[in-house]
Amino acid sequence: MNAPQVPSTLDDPLVIGGRAYRSRLLVGTGKYRDFRETRDAIVASGAQIVTVAIRRTNIGQDANEPSLVDALPPDEFTYLPNSAGCYTADEAVRTLRLGRELLDGHALCKLEVLGDQASLYPNVRETLVAAERLVADGFEVMVYTSDDPIVARELEAIGCVAIMPLASLIGSGMGIVNPWSLRLILERAKVPVLVDAGVGTASDASIAMELGCAGVLMNTAIAKAREPVRMARAMKLAVEAGREAYLAGRMPRKLYAAEASSPIGGVVR
Questions:
Q1: CA–CA gap between residue 242 and residue 248 (Å, rounded)
Q2: Is 110 a catalytic site residue?
Q3: What is the model's pLDDT at position 1?
Q4: What is the DSSP string of 90-119?
Q5: Out of 31, 110, 190, 254, which one is annotated catalytic?
Q6: How far from each other are the two terminal CA atoms of the chain, in whole angstroms?
Q7: Which of 19, 53, 129, 155 could lock 89 by a disulfide, CB 3.0 to 4.6 Å apart?
């Protein structure tokens, strides 16, 4: 007998800016020991979209230093330049324009405008200003923001191609601290919603996907694991499992089950 066909991830792609991706896991490229470990972990994760901090990572700005593009060639991965480390709309727009220039007109970007150096919480006012300017300039903006559903709605109205609310603070590993806010965003969004920041382990990623998120972006959870490559594989499986569970639909919750899990009619006594 032939084994049943298992749906391929190609049948359920992540669509960002009109392009389809097999993997719903997006991975950052910072905090690894070296570019070799970066590549090994990202290959293990199965990620196709990799985000790079333009202000911190060499992708051609310095011809005398090792470049990330040698480890992760742009013909193998979709680069997502980001404005990490920017605290004003002007800084963010200038940084992402530089990224577009370095990547030969690449329009897809991740907008990130921070409001506090200690917590790295987003400055939503500056984020809204930057998003409007970038969209008007032809960028396809994936935007890091708070878990405020009103702000998420405004960013979508501006024309962002994906909304990326934090699960908890960047690098905290605290997981999803407010699933109810994420659900409000998910219920109303017409563009993909991806959790960005705060994932600590595989179960966090799976929960985000079970809530209905289109994907998860992470960096520290993999790069700072004891074994980054092994954690990358775990995150790949967690995202896939969470998506499958979401599509399957969980059973209703009950305080108790006054019903046997197997039928009892016709049982030999």
A1: 10
A2: yes
A3: 38
A4: HHHHHHHHHHHHHTTS--EEEE--BS-TTT
A5: 110
A6: 35
A7: 129
How many angstroms separate the Cα of 257 from the Cα of each of 213, 241, 254, 260, 265? Answer: 29, 25, 6, 8, 17
Closest CA to 66 of 39, 101, 98, 97: 39
- How far apart (Å, rounded) are the C-alpha atoms in residues 218 and 200? 9
Q: What is the pTM of this model?
A: 0.87
Per-position b or e across 130-156, b if 16+ CB within 10 A of its CB: bbbbbbeeebbbbbbbbbbbebbbbbb
Q: Kindly state the tokens that stand for 35.
A: 């570019």
Residues facing residue 266 across a β-bridge: none
Residue located via tokens 């191609």: 161
Give the phi and the psi of residue 231 in degrees, each rounded to 5: -65, -35
10 Å Cβ neighbour count for 113? Answer: 27
Decide if pLDDT at 166 tops 50.
Answer: yes
- The pair of structure tokens assigned to 50 is 């990799």
Q: What is the pLDDT of residue 230?
A: 97
pLDDT in tens, 65-124: 888 888 888 889 999 999 999 999 999 999 999 989 888 888 999 999 999 888 889 999
